[in-house]
Amino acid sequence: MKLHFDSNQEYQLEAIRSVTDLFEGQPLNGGDFEFTLTQSGQLLTENGFGNHLKLSEDQLLANVKTIQERNEIKDPVTELQGMNFSIEMETGTGKTYVYLRTIYELNKLYGFKKFLIVVPSVAIREGVIKNLKITHEHFQLLYDNTAITFNVYDSKRVSNLRTYANSNAVQILVINIDSFAKDENIINKINETGKKPIEFIQSTNPIVIVDEPQNMETEIRRRAILNLNPLCTLRYSATHTNVYNLVYSLNPVKAYDLGLVKQIEVDSVVSENAMNEAFIQVEKISATKTKITAKIKIDCNTNKGVTKKSVSVKVGDDIFKLSNNREIYKDGFIIDEVDAGNQSITMTNGLLLSVGQSQGGMNDEVMKFMIRKAIEEHLKKERSFKGKGIKVLSLFFIDKVKNYREYDANGNPVKGKFAEWFEEIYKEEIKKPAYSELISFEVEQLHNGYFSQDNKGRVKDTGGETQADDDTYQLIMQEKEKLLDIDTPLRFIFSHSALREGWDNPNVFQICTLNETKSEIKKRQEIGRGLRLCVDQNGQRIFGQNINRLTVIANERYEDFAKALQKEIEEDCGVDFSGRTKNKRDRQAANLRKGFEADPKFLQIWEKIKFHTKYSVSYKTDELVLLASKAVKDIPEIKKPSVKSTKKGLLFTDKGIESQLLSDSSTDSYAAKFEIPDLLTYIQSKTELTRSTILEILKKSERLNEYILNPQLFMDYAVTAIRTQLYELMIDGIKYEKIGNKWYEMTLFQDDELEFFVNQFTFEISKPERTIYENYIPLQSGIESQFAKDCESSDNIEFFFKLPFWFKINTPIGTYNPDWAVVFKGEKKIYFVAETKGRGQELRGSEKLKIKCGEAHFAKFEEIIYKRVSSVSELNS
C-alpha cells in the first residue's frame, strides 16, 4: 500500500502560512540583486551554508500581530516572546505533515536551508522518519524536485554534521533531545578536530522544529535547545505546557467540528448491583519513615444501600468495621501485613492481593464483556465496510502483559486469560449468520501482542520510556502499511497501556482499555490512538461521518468518561468540549426511503444534475492590466530601509531582571548601496505573465517611481497584488463542459447511508415522500435546519434533498460540494441547486470563488437554476 496525501487541505495550508508569514518582509527566494556566493536567506560561514534573517524584532512583532488577528488568537501578544513560535494542532490532523511541508515552503519563499527537528523520544523520532520517507515523493512533485537530504543524528557518526553544515542543499536533521542536552553527550565534547561537533549545527543558525515541546520544558532541555543557536524555534503540539507567540490554533473542538478527526463514541461497561461477594481492590500502597498504609476499595453499608468506597488501611484494621459491619467481611478480613517492597497486602484469612488486583465485584466478568463488545463493534464495521476497501483495526490496552501472554516452566509462551477469552468470544461471534462469511482467517492469526522484551526474548511490563519500549515502537512504525492491508490477517492488537506515541494508526476504529483497576490513562491519550481519519486500500483518506467513528469501550460510566475528557481539554486548551463526546446508545441511523431511486419526483432533477464536468479558464489581458494596475496602485506605502535604535535599562527587582524603555529612534537617511534587480524578470517568475503585460501593469499603477526606494519590498507587494487579480479573473472566465459518458452512479446513495448523533440541527422528517430519507437529515447549521423545515412545509416545494458529500464539482482551487437539490412547483416546475448561507453572511475569498464556479458549472445544465439563498422564500424571488 502507498499512502496518498491531499495537498489542498485548507486548515493545513493556513497552519503553514501562519509560519511562513512570520518572515513577511524577508527578501523572497532568488532576490536577483544579491550577486554574491550566497542566496537570499543564507549566510556563508566558515563551516558552510547557514540561514540568515534580515528582519528586525519590530518587523517580526508586527507580523505576529497580523497573523494572530487573522487567526483570531485569544490573548494576542503585545511584545515578542523571544524567537519561539507555537503552533497548536490536535492529534490526528497532520501536524507532522504540516511542519515538513513548512520546511519546503520556507525554502521556496526565503531560501532557508538548514532545519533541525528535535524530538523527546525514539517513538516520535521513528514516526518523523517514517513521515519523511512516505511524504518525500509527494513533496518532490509539489516543489519541483527540491534538493533535500534528511538524516537521523547518530553519536557514532558525528562527522556527518560537517556534511550537514557544508551542504548547499536543504538539510533536515532529526535528533533526540537526550542526545545533546547534557555536557557529557558526545556532541558537546571537543574531538580530534579541536571542535565540539555541535558547533557545526550552531554555525548554520538552523530553524529548529520541536515536536511535542511539553516534554522538553525542563531548564536543562530549554537551555540545550537555545544552545543550538537557532534562527527561530517552531513548537508543534496538541498539548502545549507553555505557549510562546501562538500563531495558529486547531484545538480539539475545532478539529472535531470541522470533521478532521473521527467522531468519538463511548461504550461504557461497568458492573451493577454486584455486591454479593467480599469485594476488595488494592489501589495503592504508600510508605513513609514512620508508617506503611494501603488504599483499598471495599463495599460499604450506607443509608442509600451498599456502595463502593476507597479507604486507607494499616496493619490491624478490620474490614468488617470499616464497611459499617458488612457481614460478608466478618471472618478473617483483618489486615495482617502491608508489604511496601512487594506492593501487596495480606489478610488474616490468608488472602494476598497485590496493587491492581481485586477479588469479588465481577472484575473478570466486566473485562470479558468489554472484549465481547469490542469484537461485536469490530465485526459490525467489517460488515458495513465490506467492498469499500477499508481495513478495520481494534486496539486493546492492557496494564499487565501476563494477562495476554505467560510462560510455562520451560520458558515456552502460553496464552494469558485475555488471549483465551478473546479466542473463545470471537469463535462465538463469527458463527452468527451476519458475520459468518466476513473473515476467512483463523482466529489465531487475527490477534497479536506488541510488548517490550527482556534479553531472553520474553515480553514484560515497562514504563513506556525504556530501550525495550523503543524497539517495540520501531516494530509498530515499520509495519504501519502492513497493518492497513486487508490481506494481512492481524486485526486485533494488544499492547501495554504504557506505550503511548506511535500507535495512532488511521484505521483503529475500536479502543478497549482492559485494566484491572480503573484506567489512569489520560482520556486524550486514550482516544488519540484512533482519532485519525481512515484510509482505503489505495492509501486515500476517507471522509464522511458514516465511516469515521471511533468507539471507546470504557470500564467506567459514559458520564464519568465524558466529564474527565472535557476537564482535560478545558485544562489543556482553555476550550469547552461539552456535548461532543457521544453515548453510543444515542446513535441514530439516517435511513434512505425505500424505493426513492425509482420515484419520478427524485429522478426528474437527478437525471438533470448527475453528470461530471471538466473546466477550462480564460481571461482578457486588457482587463487583467486594468484590475492589476489598480491593485498595485493601492499597495501600502513603500518605505526606505531604516535603522532603528531602542535603548532599555535593566532593573533588578525581587521578581528578576526587568526592562525599562529609555529611548528609541529611527532613521532612513543613511546612504544605502545595493544592486538594482531586474524587476520584470522577478515578477515574471512569480506570475508567469509576459514581460510586456507586467510592464504595462506597473506603468499604469503610477507607483513605479517608488521602486528605487526599496526594490525588494516593492516587488513583493506587486507580486501579491497581481496574483490576487489574476486568480479572480481565471475564475471569472471559467467554462464547464459535461463529460457525456461519466456521471454519478445511483449505487453511491446506498453507500451514503450513515449513522450519526442527533443534535440541535438534525431535521426530523414528517413527510418522507418529499425527500430521499425516511427519518432524519443530519445537518450542520441552523440555516440548513430551517431550510429543510421550510422545504417540507411549503406547498411550493415538490421534492428536496441534501446533496451527498461525494457530489463534488472540480474547480481551480479545489472541489466544491453544493448544498441542496430542490424541485419548485408553481405555474411551471423549476429545478434548483441551492447553496444556503446566512443573510448578510460575509464569505471568505475561496468560498466566493467556489460559488462562482458552481454558477458556471450548473449554467451548462438545462432547466437547472443555481442560487445562493438564506431561505426557501428566496428561491423564486
Q: How confident is the prediction overall: mean pLDDT?
A: 83
Largest sheet: 7 strands, parallel
Morphology? globular
- Number of helical stretches of at least 4 residues: 24
Give a brief outline of the structure.
This protein is of the alpha/beta class and 877 residues long.
Please tell me about this protein's structure:
By secondary structure, this protein is of the alpha/beta class. 30% of the residues lie in helices and 25% in strands. The chain contains 24 helices and 41 strands. The strands form 13 sheets. The protein has a seven-stranded parallel β-sheet. It has a seven-stranded parallel β-sheet with strand order 21-24-18-25-26-10-27, sandwiched between helices. The chain has a four-stranded antiparallel β-sheet with strand order 13-12-11-17, with no helix packed on it. β15 and β16 form a beta hairpin. α10 packs across α11 (417-430).
Helices and strands in order, then pairings?
Blueprint (H helix, E strand, L loop, with lengths): L9 H11 L21 E4 L2 E4 L5 H14 L13 E6 L5 H16 L3 E6 L2 H21 L5 E5 L7 H7 L3 E7 L21 H5 L4 E5 L7 H8 L5 E6 L10 E3 L1 H6 L5 E6 L11 E8 L4 E11 L2 E9 L5 H4 L12 E5 L4 E4 L4 E3 L3 E2 L3 H22 L8 E6 L6 E3 L5 E3 L1 H14 L12 H4 E4 L1 E2 L5 E2 L6 H12 L1 H5 L7 E5 L11 E7 L8 H6 L20 E6 L3 H16 L8 E2 L3 E4 L9 H10 L1 E6 L4 H13 L9 E11 L2 E12 L11 H9 L3 H11 L9 H22 L2 E9 L3 H5 L2 E4 L5 E2 L11 E2 L4 H12 L3 E6 L6 E3 L2 E3 L3 E6 L3 E8 L8 H14 L5 E6 L8
Parallel strand pairs: 3-8, 3-9, 4-6, 4-7, 5-6, 7-8, 10-26, 10-27, 18-24, 18-25, 21-24, 25-26, 40-41
Antiparallel strand pairs: 1-2, 11-12, 11-17, 12-13, 14-15, 15-16, 19-20, 22-23, 28-33, 29-32, 30-31, 34-35, 36-39, 37-38, 39-40
Helix pairs in contact: 1-3, 3-4, 4-13, 10-11, 18-20, 18-21, 19-21
